[in-house]
Amino acid sequence: MEHTEHTERTGTETGAGVGTGAGTDSDDQDQDQDQDQDHDNHNGNDPDNGEKAGPAEQAEPTEPPPSPRRRWPRRLALAVVLALLLPVLAAESALRLNYTGDPKTGTYSRGRDAIWLGHAWVDGRKTDADVTALARRLKNTGIRDLYVHAGPLEHDGTLPKSAYPKARWLIAAVYREAPGTRVQAWLGDVLATESPTGMRLERPETRAAVVTSTRQILAAGFEGAHFDLEPLHSGDRDYLTLLDSLRSVTRAHHALLSVAAHQIDPLPGFHAFWGTVAGHPKWWSQRFFGQVARRVDQIAVMSYDTMQPLQSLYGGYVAQQTSLALEVTPKSTDLLMGLPFYHENRFGHWNHAETVPAAVRGVRLGLSRTDAGRARFGVALYVDFAATEADWTAYRDDWVP
Description:
The chain contains 11 helices and 12 strands. It is of the alpha/beta class. It has an 8-stranded parallel barrel, surrounded by 6 helices. It has a two-stranded antiparallel sheet with strand order 1-2. Strands 10-11 form a two-stranded antiparallel sheet.
């Protein structure tokens, strides 16, 4: 999902009719008058001579064949519909096929999973009892990283310390209740890539401010910085430059640099096509995904909000995304595939289709087909405050050995 976190995730058509040519109405009127005259003649009511009509004249009038001018718009419309539907049907069939088969033995959690946590954990709404319950929830799972919402960043890249007043308390409490679990600061903002307002990564001073905010977060005790900047277009060189600067800072602090990543083109160049059609190039090219993955310690694919209407199609899509990501992610980088721990029905996300069981099966199938032995691999659960008991049960039963 593009992470708008309900309050914390970063966040959006006409037709025309075809008329007939001029002169058609008068042609139809003349034809109607001719037919009325024929009707009088067929009944023997010829006003001119009163003679009874002959047998040949009693035949029913025949409809003239449709004008070619009237047929071609319908044929063109049908051709357009088929041209649009056939590729979609072919692609969906391929996804359904991608969901078949059995995952390989051992394609389960490697103990490198993560979960996104809401802002309530650092703004004073949570208590020691909540941390104890969280630690109990995490016990005997594969989760070792917590992406705790500590932002959002301001559009100029700065981060007010008032945004995370209870960060030190949370970090100490997690260390006490769930030793070995790492707490990272989840920082995000809306980019001004598709609207006039938002963060502008093309400005050097903005990137410098983001780096300063990262130093600030690490000084507060967080063990890493997790960035979710959206909508981030494929090929954004300013983003890559920012990651290079951030990596220098996190390495100097022996901390982690991780990012939430857009999905990869299901077909080559699909992001460019979708950007032209919808104005929102949702996907990244596989090449750009690899460029990002080589600059970070962890990359978490937001493999939800896929527009798939069925579990089998969604699972097949996740299997495809898992394979595409594995192909270009270095073995030294943790690759995590997102699981939908939230429940909404809207365009782009169907609750009955995008389920945790379907996602986990898709992840395991993609892992099995591409690199079943990949060690630095896991899943990331989005998001704690929207999760149900059924989500947690499916995660444990289907993914945790």
